[in-house]
Amino acid sequence: MTMLLRLASRNLWRNRRRTLLTLSAMVVSLSLLILSLGVFSGMLVDILSSTTEQYHGHLVINASGYLDDRDMYKNFTADPELLQALQQDKAVRGVSERLRGFGLVSHAESSYPAELLGIRPEHEKSVTKLHSQLIAGAFPTDTDNTGAVLGSSLAQKLGVSPGDELIFVTQAADGSIGNDLLTVRAIFRTGHAGHDNGLVLVPQQWLQEVMVLKGKIHEIALSVKDPLMAAEDAQRLNSYLPDGLIATDWGELLPEMREAIASFDVSRFIFVIILYFATGLGILNTVFMSVMERTREFGILMALGLRPQQVRLVVLLESFLLGLLGTALGLVVGLLLSLYMSLVGFDLSSWITPVTYAGGTIQPHLRAIFEQRNFIDPAYMLLLVSLLAGFLPARRAAKLQPVAAIRED
């Protein structure tokens, strides 16, 4: 075996130019594939974050049927023991109780419909990232009783800035008309048209009083450590939630997003197949030409006693060694490129604006994230393609007749 390995290694560099060209193609294809998959993963994370971490959360707990029509009467009381159990759950990262109201917000002569989300600001910071997307003002604290944070487009239409007053009018739970004043504390911009045009964050206790729903909430929003495992977390939470409450993961809330992630895996596979098909042709050409040039050599080796299966193994070893070297170098280059894109990224904001897709927002600043499968899957595939590309040349070499091969020019 050692002799065959040494023979394969020597034969690989008989034509250095051809081998280096093929090796370069393998390194470029693997490194660019790793980089592309890292950037695609980063875009996917951005889309998921723009929906789950700017509004919904990874999981929500509601009264049964609330998500069907957002009926204000389908509310419940936040049980302190339940909240404590959720906060101590090993998979949960943050918990935020919410009350939701719909109505009109007004300033001077302007009035627009809006959704008011009654929150406890410090709790909301553990679930969403709206506090980090402010373009004016400061995020309110839990002691602020009338502070509001609204989307940039809504603020522009109303003509307000931090410090201005708003009037909110809505239907209260007792049938009356609820109304009160709010003070603008901050303005956020997410790039998501729905949030920037119609979302207002307000103190939870203030909204409870306006809607006559003292002590009531409509949902508990949760962030979890692994968003892609949110469906399994929801099933586990449902096993101990009180009757009448149900946990729903982001995949159920955002079916378009779930389909987008599923299609991403399919796109990854197709992308890898197309790129490696072209790379495999290059490897096949290199190994085949190497076999053709050494026909007489194989004939002599077989005449000296080398068996056909050993000849086949030599050629396969050449192909495998080429793939192994290309994989090693490609992983190093791909790692460096991915590291650069994760730390620095590439800003396209001068050319394009944020793009809304499947309910989420793709920011124009591209970045890569490190996922194990983005390195392992392409590496395994390149090694497999290398072996497959060497199969036909190996089969031809093993079928050579010693006498005829020695006589061949």
Briefly characterize the structure.
This protein is α+β, with helices and mostly antiparallel strands. It is 54% helix and 22% strand. It starts with a helix and ends with a helix.
Task: Describe the model.
This protein has 409 residues and is of the alpha+beta class. It has two domains: 200 residues, no CATH class; 147 residues, no CATH class. 54% of the residues lie in helices and 22% in strands. The strands form four sheets. The chain has a six-stranded mixed β-barrel.
Oligomerization state: single chain
> What is the general shape?
elongated
C-alpha end-to-end distance: 29 Å
Q: Based on helices, strands and strand pairing, what is the structural class?
A: alpha+beta
| Average of the residue pLDDT scores | 85
| Total count of helical runs of at least 4 residues | 15
Count of beta strands: 16
Q: Give a quick account of the main beta sheet: strands, pairing sense, barrel closure.
A: 6 strands, mixed, barrel
List low-confidence stretches.
none
Beta-strand fraction estimate: 15-25%
Q: Percent of residues in helical segments? A: 40-55%
Biggest sheet: strands side by side, in what order? 3-4-9-6-8-7
Number of domains: 2
Rg value: 31 Å
List the keywords.
409 residues; alpha+beta; 2 domains; 6-stranded mixed barrel; two-stranded antiparallel sheet; 16 strands; elongated
